[in-house]
# Entry
Amino acid sequence: MLNSFLVFCNHQNLFKPKERLLLTVSGGIDSVVMAYVFKEAGLPFGIAHCNFSLRGKESEADELFVKKLSSSLGVEFYTTSFDTKKYAKTHKLSIQEAARELRYDWFEKIRRKHKFKYICTAHHGDDSIETFFINLLRGTGLAGLTGIPLRNKRVIRPMLFASKKDILRYAVQKKIKHREDSSNEGDDYLRNRLRHSLVPLLEELSPSFRQTMLGDMQRLDDTRVAMDHLFSRYKSDMLRKSDSLWYIMFADLKGKEPLRFWLFHLLHEFGFHQSVIDNLCTLLSLKFKSGKLFRNDKFELHVERDRLSIRKNSRNKKQIHAFKIKKDTRALSTPFPLTIELLSFSKSIPFPTDSRMACLDAAKLEFPLLLRKWKIGDRFQPLGMKGSKLLSDYFSDHKFSAKAKEDAWVLESKGKIAWIVGHRIDERFKLRPETEKAFLFRLS
# Structure
């Protein structure tokens, strides 16, 4: 075990011999063996343990066990407790997701505070195989089929070279005591069901299953690295950025086959999954593409006339979507700069041709006015027309992009839309020969 560990860490260049490492130890056999291997190798390390308060006295006993283990190995010990159930409920997470989030945040704080170089987890080869099947069942790209990554920022997995059998054999040889987690015995979690049912069946069908799987996963990882290297040559030309907006021109996708591959690699970093990719492939095959909007927790993807545009999800921001304008208001800075002038009737009253200006009959306006985001069902009477029109139809007729529609504001007077801000005024509020006074609204 020791020789294989040293060869693996050296070959993978995981860390330097004198670098201080923080080992995450639960008390289970995997992490306890990792601690003994590090001690046998003479490497500098400390131990961190999380009490998730999920198994009552068992959790307390685990913490005490790891504290005594740290003392016997002569290394620093750090521990903390979490109310995991409360955290999961508050943040709408599963217990597993909550525990993962809590522990890695805390491990990183300890790493920084006490100047450890890396955080080490005890994931081994069998864990990586189980992760392959979990990702396969849930749906994944190539990266998900490579198992548990050896490195993830400041987290490293120095035990990935070992199988569970290797770890058990070492524990028996060294007479290493450890704690048993009762939650690992049941089949409540998908990983446990794979571990207890699927993997043994596959081993029965092929005795060399584990070695074959690890080899296949390594080749998939090699393929991923090569594909990432190839893709990086094109990415900067295809995924462009302007201020807070990313965009992909349809012209740059032309001839790129298979299209799903390119879209997946361009969009996966924004959290858009296969269902969105499939929808996009269908849309891009149509003559008329624009108007579709896809959202996830962090980003919005707009399908426009000649491109895909991506920006941060505006729904995540706490925004005020309506502002009152009093009769004596002469300027607004929010939601955008807007000046307001009251003009007396004369030849100096302009009839603006600039869409950023609106000159409206003061007698037709009833204050306070409301400046707000447009909504589905809004209607107005476009200047020069007799009948009313849905704003959504007006946007479509004038080929508004999905982003332009999302950003549209209206000026409302007593329930009537007087101006689609920056675009067109309503026929009912236009200047007439009998107009005596007018309000001039100007976008700065």
